[in-house]
Amino acid sequence: MLLHEAMGLQLAGHGVTHVFGVLGEANMYVADSFEHLGRGLYVAMTDEAASVMAAMGYAHTSGRLGVATVTQGPGLTNAITALVEVARSGIPVLVIAGDTTDLDYQNAQNVPQREIVAQTGARYVEMRAPETMPSDLARAIRLARADRCTVVLNMRGDFQMRDVGTVDPVANQVLGTQATPASATAMDEAAGVIASCARPIVLGGRGAADVTAREALVALADRLGAPLATTFLAKDLFRGHPHDLGIFGTLSHDVAAEQIARADCVIAFGASMNRYTTDSAALLKDKALVHIDIDARAIGAHVPATVGVVGDSASVARQIAELLDVAGVRPTGFASPELGKRLATYEFSYSDAGTKDAVDVRTAVRLLDERLPRERTVVRDCGRAMYGIFALLHVHEPAANIALIGFGAIGLGVGTAVGASFGAPERPTLLVVGDGGFMMGGLSEFNTAVRYGRDLVVVVMNDGAYGAEHVHFRRRGMDPSITVFAWPEFAALAQALGGTGLTARNEAELAKALDSLTANPGAVLIDVKLDPDAVPSGYA
Amino acid sequence: MRGSEAVAAALVGSGIDTVFSVPGDGNLHIDYALAQDPRVTYVKAVREDGAVTMADGFARATGRLAAASVTRGPGLTNAITAITSAVRHRTPMLVLTAEEARNVKHHFQSIDVAAVVGPTGAELLRVERIDRIGEDLAEAARLAWGRRLPVVAVVPMDVQTADVPSTGLAQSRVEIPLSDAAPGGTSLDTAVGLLASARRPLVLAGKGAAQSGAREEILDLARRLGAPVCTTAPVKDFFQGDEFNLGILGSLGSEVAQEAVAAADCVLVFGASLNDKTCMFDWVASGKTVVQCDSDLAALGRYQPVTAGVVGDARAAAAAITTWLTELDLKPADGRSTELARKLAQQAEQRQRLAESTSMTMRTFLTRLDTMLPSTRNLVTDGGRFFGTATRCLSAPEPGIFLWTLGFGSIGLGLGTAIGGAFARRDTPTVLVVGDGGFMMSAPELSTAVRYGLDLITVVMNDGSYGAEYGKLVAEGMDPGITLFEWPEIARLGDALGADSIIIRNLESDMGRLAKLIAERSGPVLIDARFDPALAMR
After folding, report:
1. Is A25 within 8 Å of B441 when comparing Cβ atoms?
2. What's the sign of the alpha-carbon dihedral B327, B329, B331, B336?
3. Do A22 and B416 touch, CB atoms closer than 8 A?
4. B507 close to B471: Cβ distance less than 8 angstroms
5. Mind telling me how many Å the CA of B45 is from chain A's nearest CA?
6. Quick one: what percent of chain A has pLDDT higher than 90?
7. What average pLDDT score do residues A342-363 get?
8. B493, A493: Cβ pair inside 8 Å?
């Protein structure tokens, strides 16, 4: 059996059903065998960056390993930005990269691939020889899943045609999180700190974003009389709870910010406590921090904790509640009925600045939130128009919320959305992207969504400018014209790319466009015209 | 004066008059100052790889130093393929980028710039001292020009925002001429001795010969030697017009050229690296004498063994050798024979017949297209299986320029290169030949050509597949299904991007419309030429 045939079968044996890629001679035979022998779906993207992003999107919504493949040399270098973004996401992704053979040093596509991968933050596994393919592949997959990281499996292209005999599948066991008892000393200390506080908040991060942990955190918060909040990555975990403050951090709304300011203790589960969550530690000033994480390395990584507890979120939350019961600690009342009332009646208020030719971005987001199906995947590209949307656009579960904020790169959204849609095909995928981002990385991949019949709605927040940069100039009283672009009409582009293109110049047109979606299955683009001088920046 | 303004002033001082950029918050203020300067043409690209390939094309088409500007972090990483490619084209250019202020501990766009730039082969230079901005950038320009490679100049944000003295800026315009030194006597002596005893000499010219402007001197020498002439692919039309021009030698060469190199007993080489695309076998081992002349000592014998090396400028060396041969009163060999003239005429006739063919293959279409395009034009080829055919069938005789983009073997870099070339030579139309996959990878940049109203003719060789990979799978007896693409109508996409576009399916019925489109164009046009992937290469 040739290596590419064996590898196609092995991928299937490891449970891989989707591979996103761009073909070249150094990876094409494996992709072919994955489809023909492994009975998997090879999704042909247009650009290597998008194929890596699609693997991440797929992994994010499906909870499985995402797999991409790129060819040697430019195939890998085209994916560098995406590799950095994905490596920072904490989502398990395997990238199979072809490489030139050592015997062909004059090959134009020869580059030091190990060095290129090293600086992205992705891990690197070399396929050592054709006969070690099964163990190298198994090791790469195990590493990606166990460490929740991005792994590049580097494979010399000429290995594909080598005979490797018969190959048995390699067993690959990766366990999920298991409940483990936390240290009794640490638990005592944590309970002590919590018991002595009067105004605690229970904060859930991505490490607590599952059904079991949610239930345990809510029970603990109710037992303590503490309001609940989430990090941005666990957004909407407690949505519907009367004392849900929403996002804790730089994106908090007014009522939440006020409550956070008054708190004297934060009990954080599975949250990194990075500079966005803590507003560079300012939000933790004069507060105790009880930091719970399954990974000891996470505690103290960004801010010092008063007490650190190593353990899984659900068990630790239950144990804390039990200790409080034993000690007879009384609920604090910080989550007061009055707070509940304020949260229930809170509405983000603004005065609509839209005109007949421009939509107010806040109104646009409100309409998206109201009129799209409640169960949807939301992918957010990077850019000025995105910040406000972070808070105002909701999801039904944290796994449905994908934000591309790891590397501050625009243009990675459409590829991500295509993959996310394959990972959760039962619900529509919404991508919110700026005009510059769509032009940079979206155009060709929108056609990929068309080719594969994805249920994708791309909303281009179009201010005809690199908006973040536009604001810089305006604020300084400088001429912003270098940030302004005379783009082509996006709706016509979407049509030319084989999808549906709609234009919304005002609120009524946007409402109409959104209402027409049920009649327009497949890939749809809505070009939402904004006024570049009217877009508020960084509001929540 | 702010640091960002000093950076812009230093660039202008180094002779930069055109900057290709994607503005982001890291390069914004430098860009602003550049855009305000009436001496600078400031061009906004859609993608960073586009901006860098534009600068690459601009530098190669003008023979001058070019500049691109990208923002920090992802702005730089988006440009890595294009920078690697420019390194391999030996393109002198500056790539300006930024980095966090040095007192910032963490920024989400942070990346280890040195580690990112290292594998590309480009030089890296940090502009870190606010009292030396002008000097440091002048050094970057000197380095780029002298070593003929891209230099990534990193300007930290705190340097950009600092107040700097507006006096004392280095205005060191980089106009160091390329070396035009004549070769030394001993090496010349050896070379002339070898040439004098050659019976079937052949003269080969590469990029170094073109850069030196050595066409007439080399042709004089070839006549003196009685040798036919040929070139490497990147300067393929260098000898167009000479009666005994064999065209490209090597993997893209014609049968006549292959026969000539097989029969030659001596090859005289000017400014060509002799890599494995040009030398398809070891010439010395097969009994030939090889005399390689290059201005760079390190180029001699780099890829292939040679019999003798001559270090010197191609033009000066060719003239010196001619003088010596004349003094020796050497009788020319009979390489420029009527027999060869007959073979070349036959080749031209075959080509003529191809132009009259009505079956739509890449060869027939491009041969016909060559007769329909404006006679003076720049030619840019992207990568793909059409590349060899396009290189052979289309020409760009002087004063046009031919730019290839395969230094790094990447598809999708042609459109940016063509835009840079079009900015460099705005009075000459630029023709880009690109595959469907390469076009889809770079399509957004067509809107840049539209925004700037460039005279760009984009020819998409559309076989609805990754053709090179398609060919390989078919050759392996495998199903080529995974290489096939249901692309959108590329002509329709061209129209939506603002270029007048046309679909060509048939050489009998569609060429009239094509002639009209070319004649009446007033901005970028796109030709969506359709081929059956199974028949395209016939």
Report:
1. no
2. positive
3. no
4. no
5. 10
6. 82
7. 90
8. yes
**Length in residues, chain B:** 538
Q: Nearest CB to B31: which of A47, A482, A498? A: A482
Q: Which of B126, B134, B209, B200 is nearest to B173 (CA)?
A: B134
- Ranges of beta strands (E only) in A217-328 are 228-230, 244-247, 265-269, 288-293, 307-310
Measured over the CA atoms of residue B37, residue B41, residue B46 and residue B47, the dihedral's sign is negative
- DSSP code of A143? H
Neighbours of B346 (CB within 10 A): 11
Structural element, H or E, at residue B267: strand B266-270
What's the rounded Cα separation, in Å, for the pair B73 and B70?
9
Q: Do A492 and B46 touch (CB under 8 A)?
A: no
Query: DSSP character for B184?
Result: P
Q: How far apart are CA B64 and CA A68, in angstroms?
A: 40
Alpha-carbon gap, residue A491 to A503, rounded angstroms: 6
Tokens of A120: 């992205």
**pLDDT higher than threshold 70 for residue B179:** no
A28 vs B contacts (CB less than 8 Å): 469, 472-473, 482-483
Dist CA B502 CA B522 (whole Å): 15
Q: How confident is the model at residue A145 (pLDDT cuts 50, 70, 90)?
A: very high
Nearest CA in chain B to A476: B29
| pLDDT one-digit tens code per residue, B285-323 | 999 999 999 998 999 999 999 999 999 999 999 999 999
Q: In this complex, do A482 and B495 lie within 8 Å of one another by their Cβ atoms?
A: no
- Judge whether B103 is closer than 8 Å to chain A, CB to CB: no
* Residue B379 three-state SS: strand
- Provide the sign of the torsion angle of the four alpha carbons A373, A375, A380, A384, taken in this order: positive
Q: Residue with structure tokens 């289309």? A: B394
**Across the interface, do A496 and B46 touch by the CB < 8 Å criterion?**
no
The candidate with the shortest Cα–Cα distance to B435, out of B462, B408, B404, B396, is: B462
Contact of A3 with A160, CB cutoff 8 Å: yes
Contact residues, B window 301-360, toward A, CB-based 8 Å cutoff: 303
- Cβ B112–A119 below 8 Å, yes or no? yes
Bridge-based pairing of strands A307-310 and A123-126 is unpaired
The encoded tokens of residue B162 equal 């600092």
CB atoms within 10 A of CB A176: 8
Under DSSP, the state recorded for A303 is S
- Pairwise CB contact (< 8 Å): B32 & A81: no
Task: Quote the crossing angle between the two packed helices A413-423 and A443-451, to the nearest 10°.
Answer: 20
Q: Per-residue pLDDT tens for A276-312? A: 899 999 999 999 999 999 999 999 999 999 999 999 9
CA dihedral over A309, A315, A321, A325, signed as positive or negative: negative
Q: What is the DSSP letter of B163?
A: B
Distance of residue A467 Cα from the nearest chain B Cα, in angstroms:
10
A408 vs B: CB within 8 A: yes
Whole-number Å distance between alpha carbons of A366 and B337: 81
For the CA atoms of B430, B436, B438, B439, the dihedral, rounded to the nearest 10 degrees, stands at: 50
Enter the ipTM.
Answer: 0.90
- Whether residues A405 and B108 touch (CB distance < 8 A) is answered with yes
Interface residue A340 vs chain B (CB under 8 A): no
Which residues of chain A are within 8 Å of residue B73 when distances are taken between CB atoms?
407-409
Beta carbons of A290 and A283 less than 8 angstroms apart: no
Cβ contact A406–B108 (<8 Å): yes
Structure tokens at A445: 């991949």
Contact criterion met (CB < 8 Å) for B441 and A468: no
- Provide the β-strand partners of residue B155: B98
- Of B389, B521, B499, B368, nearest to B439 by C-alpha is B499
- Residue A488 CA to residue A493 CA, distance in Å, equals 7
Mutate one of A32, A85, A438 to test the B interface: name it (highest B CB count within 10 A).
A32
